[in-house]
Design goal:
single chain, mainly alpha
Length: 56
């Protein structure tokens, strides 16, 4: 959980955002924008959500 919440250039496919804190990660997951995206995607995609603590 590092960075600004934007995808890091070094992520393998650009879809793995990194956050500075666990709290920011949970807030992003619980945000209205993310929850709205889940509704819009419905069952059209398979999702795998994981929170993994980074190492400095």
């Amino acid at each position: 959980m590092r960075g600004s919440g934007a995808s890091k250039p070094g992520s393998a496919d650009g879809r793995h955002p990194e956050f500075d804190t666990y709290e920011q990660t949970v807030a992003a997951h619980e945000s209205a924008a993310y929850q709205g995206a889940l509704v819009a995607l419905s069952d059209g995609v398979e999702r795998d959500f994981r929170i993994i603590e980074g190492v400095d």
